Amino acid sequence: MDSHTKPYTCHYVNCKRNTEGFSRRDNLNIHLKSHRGSNRKKPRRIRSPGDGEGSLSGGELRRIEKKAQRDKLRLMLKTTKALLRQMEEEEEDGYTSSDVTDECEDEVAENSRDEEQ
């Protein structure tokens, strides 16, 4: 396995140099001349110009986005479970969510009275 960085890749999808790449830009330019005159259409790249090492293909990017979405959902689930446990503990202690609602309504009423005066 070659451990050298090869950030300059061929733009043609079916070309093996699309994944392997070249370590130097001038080698890529020489290689691209071999595609001139061929009937292949040059596809649009997902990578932005200047991307080299660290560029992601569309499939890799989708996998990363799905993983981030799963991680976000797991965090939301974990937070929800913690909040439910907290609510259950408060109900066991005799402090219910309706008490909180009543306190909020009382506070709003007091604030509105203060504003009127």
Give a verbal description of the structure.
By secondary structure, this protein is mainly α. The protein has helices at 17-20, 25-33, 58-92, 97-116. The radius of gyration is 30 Å and the shape is elongated.
Instruction: Based on Cα principal axes, name the global outline.
Output: elongated
Main sheet record: none
End-to-end CA span: 80 Å
For the CA atoms, what is the radius of gyration? 30 Å
Instruction: Tell me the structural class.
Output: mainly alpha
The number of helical runs is 4
Strand content: under 5%
Q: Residue ranges: pLDDT <50 for 5 or more in a row?
A: none
Order of helices and strands: HHHH
- Report the count of strand segments: 0
Short account of what is shown:
The protein is mostly helical. It has 4 helices and no strands. The chain has helices at 17-20, 25-33, 58-92, 97-116.
Salient structural properties:
117 residues; mainly alpha; 4 helices; elongated
Set out the fold topology.
Elements: H1 17-20, H2 25-33, H3 58-92, H4 97-116
